[in-house]
Write a structure and sequence with these properties.
By secondary structure, the protein is of the alpha/beta class. About 45% of the residues lie in helices and about 25% in strands. The chain is flat, with a radius of gyration of 32 Å. The structure holds guanosine-5'-monophosphate (2 copies) and manganese (II) ion (MN).
Length: about 675
């Protein structure tokens, strides 16, 4: 939401400006002092601030310096009499104020300047997002301007291309990739092509647009997936093409601008079959299959045989996809019936994958590669499912990109909320805190599950901002409850290791808590087991720092990744959270119970508490109690709740508890 904050000690100026900017379509907040402005900013995100210079107590210059320090993204402007110009020059030169606006102002001009300020904010933001992407993504990325020149690159890209940052900077992509021409690059940057293939020093690379801003693009590079090595074909029929001839054939059709299909039929379970009927007979089967396919296509298309029991057929003059399906079905039915070989009955089956040119690839090699890739993906699928290349693969990729883009704006669009899932002490049946879980309702895509968006945010880097937002929200709630005089219980917040990676993470988090007057002990940080194990050495150092700073730590999703308990002794954690997958068969499976008992004993020896999550039945809870497990979380006790319901539950729980205790006396 485009929000602007106006700060002036003269109320009639505030009123006049507010009216003007409201009419121009902005959401306007007003403050009559620097102190009030800072209070407002702490709770309401704004993108632009206009402040008077001369104000009693804190003046406009001091205010903007503070805003710049705490909210570096906000674009600030000074509105004052010309007499103050000299005083604010330092602010302008230091990049702290974006513009000096003169009193009295011209309405139209002021509105234009405000629009400029919002544009400036957006440019800064998209630049910041690209920077974050470049820093945190493990994928090789290049930042290009609209001319296709490299502006920045990340380490992975430098390694992949074996060029240094200096060697890459300023170079146009066509200079780096010998076979790339300006027109193709331009089409790609304008989204007319879904991806780009180009070579450099005998190596082929594939490019995708990862982030598309007006003036800059982030491009992801990967090595072009190599074709499997060419094994000499055992099929010796002159009209069957080999791999090289097949690629040539596809290239010819592409050149003729035909619409055509490339279909792969791979014999399933060939090795098993060869074991049964003998390798010689199994290979002989190829000739039989090739023969049937050749008759089937009746010189209408072309047949090729590749290594790995794989046949590829090119169908020219494609009319429609349903029509293609009919043709494939007809062919497959000709050959996949039962065969009696050496007295053994076998049933042939094929994995079918296809691509349609020119949509699904730019060159013969690319199209064939896409078909083979799809065939690999479909090899575990059903025999009667014909899988097309781009339909499934690129749809996923596109969805990922769309969600990723929307995630970058989730915070400023105020689409995020948190819910609280209570944790219970099993012995006393008392609520001892809650886990904070993020919820995202995207205006574009509706409710998206964290199971979907968290992995995207981890991959593309937004998790750092999202995670910090959750921390801040949690601290705000704790502060609010403290102010309301409630008996506050600790909150557990999920953390990504990427957040840990930021050097100033601990200081920033401590500062955040201090501003709200909250002790770190009220926040437990949950970090997943698998993430810790990715780099045990360095992560355990970071955890120790956090621990020393006073945070309580938990290992999340325990039991899903690493099997050895030994490393537990090396981590400074207070709590183990057992993943719900470990307890699904708890009632009825004794070995699960024994395993859990061992984990709990070990944890208790190390003075760690054990929480089990995903507790859904009373039976599970009873067993956990017997095993001396400390805490439980799950649908049986409560699903995740919003603030109101969580506080109501806390109040009810403390009442029943008081009643139980008083009943005993
Ligand atoms: O809340 P459930 O609702 O569906 O969450 C699914 C997954 O998303 C869980 O593994 C949970 O740990 C994770 N998750 C939820 N909120 C956050 C968060 O704020 N930060 C991180 N890193 N993960 C979260
Ligand atoms: O991985 P993480 O532990 O942080 O995730 C908690 C996740 O588990 C959230 O998605 C939450 O909604 C979900 N969850 C919480 N309690 C239960 C439960 O009893 N059963 C199931 N199936 N999921 C649960
Ligand atoms: Mn968790």
């Amino acid at each position: 939401m485009d929000r602007i904050l106006l700060v002036d000690d003269e109320l009639y100026i505030l009123k006049a400006l507010e009216r003007l900017l409201r009419r121009a379509g902005f959401h306007v907040l007003t403050a009559d002092s620097a102190e009030q402005a800072l209070q407002l900013l702490a709770v309401t995100p704004c993108q632009v601030v206009i402040s008077d210079y001369r104000m009693p107590e804190t003046n406009g210059g001091e205010l903007l310096n503070k805003i710049h320090q705490h909210y570096p993204n906000i674009v600030c402007m000074i509105l004052s009499g010309y007499a103050d110009f000299n005083a604010v020059i330092a602010l302008l030169n230091g990049g702290i104020a974006f513009r000096f606006l003169q009193k009295p102002w011209d309405d139209a001009q002021l509105v234009t300047e405000v629009e400029n300020a919002f544009n400036k904010y957006r440019l800064n933001r998209s630049d910041q997002i690209r920077t974050q992407f470049l820093i945190s993504s493990p994928e090789p990325l290049l930042e290009l301007n609209t001319l296709g020149e490299v502006i920045r690159s990340n380490f992975a890209a430098q390694q992949l291309l074996q060029l240094s940052a200096v060697e890459l900077n300023g170079v146009q992509l066509t200079q780096l990739f010998s076979d790339l021409v300006n027109q193709t690059l331009d089409d790609f940057l304008k989204h007319k092509l879904p991806h780009l293939v180009a070579s450099r020093k005998t190596q082929e690379y594939e490019f995708f647009i990862q982030k598309d801003d007006v003036d800059f693009k982030l491009i992801r590079i990967q090595l072009f997936d190599e074709l499997p090595p060419l094994v000499s074909s055992t099929v010796n029929l002159p009209s069957v093409l080999n791999q090289t001839q097949l690629i040539q054939e596809i290239d010819n059709l592409l050149y003729a601008e035909d619409t055509f299909a490339v279909v792969s039929l791979q014999i399933r379970d060939f090795n098993l079959m060869a074991d049964i009927i003998g390798i010689h007979e199994a290979e002989g089967l190829f000739e039989h299959v090739a023969d049937s396919l050749l008759t089937g296509i009746e010189h209408y298309g072309k047949l090729a045989y590749l290594a790995n029991e794989q046949f590829v057929i090119v169908f020219p003059n494609l009319t429609s996809e349903p029509d293609l399906h009919e043709q494939i079905l007809r062919l497959v039915q000709r050959v996949d019936g039962r065969q009696l070989i050496k007295g053994k009955m076998i049933q042939l089956g094929f994995t079918v994958a296809y691509a349609i040119a020119p949509d699904d690839g730019l060159s013969g090699k690319a199209i064939l590669n896409n078909v083979l890739l799809t065939s690999r993906l479909n090899s575990k699928g059903r025999v009667d499912f014909f899988m097309r290349y781009s339909a499934s693969l690129t749809a996923n990729r596109k969805r990922h990109l769309q969600l990723s883009e929307a995630l970058y704006h989730a915070i400023e669009r105020e689409e995020l909320t948190v819910v609280f899932q209570p944790k219970w002490d099993i012995a006393t049946k008392q609520i001892i805190g809650a886990e904070v879980l993020m919820r995202w309702h995207s205006k574009e895509f509706g409710q998206i599950s964290p199971a979907v968006f968290i992995p995207i945010a981890e991959q593309d880097g937004q998790i750092i901002e999202l995670g910090n937002w959750v921390l801040k929200r949690s601290a705000q709630f704790l502060a609010l409850w403290q102010k309301q005089g409630l008996n506050i219980l600790p909150l557990a917040v999920n953390m990504s290791v990427l957040q840990l990676g930021k050097l100033d993470f601990i200081d920033e988090t401590l500062a955040l808590l201090k501003r709200q007057d909250i002790t770190p002990a009220l926040l437990q940080l949950e970090i997943t087991e698998s993430a810790i194990m990715d780099d045990l050495e360095s992560n355990s150092k970071k955890l120790t720092l956090l621990k020393n700073a006073g945070f309580s730590l938990a290992i999340d999703d325990f039991g899903t990744g690493y099997s050895s308990l030994a490393y537990l002794t090396r981590l400074p954690v207070d709590t183990l959270k057992i993943d719900r997958s470990l307890i699904t068969d708890l009632d009825g499976n004794l070995s699960t119970q024994t395993m859990l008992q061992n984990i709990i004993r070990m944890a208790h020896d190390l003075e760690q508490k054990v929480v089990v999550e995903g507790v859904e039945t009373a039976e599970q809870l009873a067993i956990l109690e017997k095993l001396a497990c400390d805490q439980a979380q799950g649908f049986l006790l409560s699903k995740p709740l919003d603030e109101v319901d969580y506080l109501a539950l806390l109040a009810a729980n403390s009442k029943t508890l008081t009643r139980e205790i008083t009943d005993e006396f």
